[in-house]
Q: What sequence folds into this?
């Protein structure tokens, strides 16, 4: 018998419903065999001894902004996908927003897809956009294979990607329902946030806390309640992105109970950083919705533990350092967006598993299984099972490490997590049976790479 492509021996495998020890046999990019509690007798062309290590399904990051084409100087598929690989992610869904042109037509999709095929070292899917000008293009985007559609209920900050008013949202949702696709929404109330921001700035209040207070939880609640009513009427599947508060999550939970097809995502930064951190760190920790107080962080963890949060996405939204400046201390002027794609699993292990006793199975459920199920990729992805893609993260659960700037694979090595100490480190990432990251280094085409 010829040797198998790869065998991972003696690892502890974690899925959304089990933790078990054994060997994983990989051939032609798929998991061919799983042998529990004993050693597989065959041989591999490459073998990994995973004794004392944990094997997770590769993370599926459903929310990243890699900005290519057009704004590759912010982040691109090369650096972005390498940072994901370093953090144990094997698939990403790239947002349509910051690229130029944004992914709101078939032509724009093809431009982005071509670049992703050339440069990404992990698997990917692309989001399409819903904007006032592209209702007639939703079907062709769906036929291109977009994973879903994304709309902003408040200004996006990008002129080329306009937010959708209520009429556009409703009409778009009718069409998306017909396509049996999903609409993701950035849900904040424009009226509330604009009014409060204007009042703050007129009063000369422009610090981090003022920015946070100008975008209160109530602005999310208002927008989410509105979009849920449209989902109920149109039958459109809905995904609420980057919920910053358990109050928003509770609203979604109640909607599920009355039959609305909706899921909710939060991000590692809402589970680990606070308004106090924002004031201390500065613009690198600015995002929208903004960070919340300590009590909100703990309440969000309770929602996580109770199974009310469906998906964790990084909302990796990078920008060059010059854009992450608060001119004259005015936090409203700095670009909003947190760089965090490389640290998702580390945050969840440190803050969730170690500090709050969140089961590993629950972490896998929100980072791999649920996104795969919600967006039609399960069981090809999102689990460790015979026949599934061999997309895996091998983790040393007990290893402490301090995140330094030179550890980051982003185009711009800044992140609010720099300087933090984590327990739980990804040591190898496998995408469709190929090792793409190992022991701190990227591997591409069988060769170690040094990324500038």
A:
């Amino acid at each position: 018998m010829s040797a198998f492509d790869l065998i991972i021996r003696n690892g502890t495998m974690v899925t959304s419903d089990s933790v078990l020890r054994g060997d994983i046999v990989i051939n032609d990019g798929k998991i061919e065999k799983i042998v529990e509690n004993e050693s597989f007798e065959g041989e591999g062309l490459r073998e990994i001894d995973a004794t004392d290590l944990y094997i997770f399904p590769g993370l599926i990051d459903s929310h990243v902004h890699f900005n290519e084409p057009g704004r590759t100087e912010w982040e691109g598929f090369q650096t972005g996908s390498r940072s994901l690989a370093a953090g144990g992610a094997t698939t990403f869904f790239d947002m349509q927003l910051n690229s130029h042109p944004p992914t709101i037509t078939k032509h724009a999709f093809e431009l982005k897809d071509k670049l992703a095929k050339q440069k990404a070292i992990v698997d990917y899917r692309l989001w399409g956009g819903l904007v006032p000008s592209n209702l007639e293009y939703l079907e062709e985007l769906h036929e291109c294979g977009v994973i879903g559609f994304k709309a902003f209920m408040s200004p996006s900050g990008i002129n080329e990607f306009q937010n959708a008013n209520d009429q556009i949202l409703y009409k778009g949702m009718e069409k998306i329902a017909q396509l049996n696709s999903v609409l993701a929404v950035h849900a904040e109330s424009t009226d509330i946030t604009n009014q409060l921001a204007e009042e703050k700035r007129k009063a000369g209040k422009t610090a981090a806390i003022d920015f946070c207070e100008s975008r209160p939880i109530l602005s999310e609640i208002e927008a989410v309640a509105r979009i849920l009513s449209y989902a109920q009427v149109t039958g459109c599947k809905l995904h609420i992105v980057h919920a910053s508060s358990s109050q928003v999550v509770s609203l979604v939970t109640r909607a599920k109970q009355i039959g609305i097809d909706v899921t909710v995502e939060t991000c590692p930064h809402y589970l680990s950083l606070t308004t106090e951190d924002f004031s201390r760190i500065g613009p690198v920790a600015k995002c929208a919705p903004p960070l919340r107080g300590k009590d909100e962080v703990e309440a969000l963890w309770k929602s996580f533990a109770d199974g009310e949060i469906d998906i964790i996405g990084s909302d990796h939204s990078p920008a060059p350092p010059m854009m992450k400046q608060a001119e004259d201390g005015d936090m409203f002027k700095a670009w909003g967006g947190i760089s965090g794609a490389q640290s998702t699993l580390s945050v969840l292990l440190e803050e969730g598993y170690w500090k709050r006793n969140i089961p590993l199975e629950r972490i896998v459920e929100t980072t791999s299984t649920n996104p795969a199920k919600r967006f039609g990729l399960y069981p090809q992805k999102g689990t460790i099972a015979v026949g599934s893609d061999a997309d895996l993260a091998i983790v040393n659960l007990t290893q402490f490490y301090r995140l330094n700037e030179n550890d980051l694979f982003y185009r711009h090595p800044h992140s609010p997590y720099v300087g933090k100490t984590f327990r739980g480190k990804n040591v190898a990432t496998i995408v469709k049976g190929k090792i793409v990251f190992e022991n701190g280094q990227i591997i591409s085409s069988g060769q170690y790479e040094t990324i500038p």
Summary: Residues 446-452 have pLDDT under 50 and may be disordered. The chain has two domains: 4-56+389-398+421-449, 59-374. The longest helix spans residues 217-234. The longest strand covers residues 4-14.
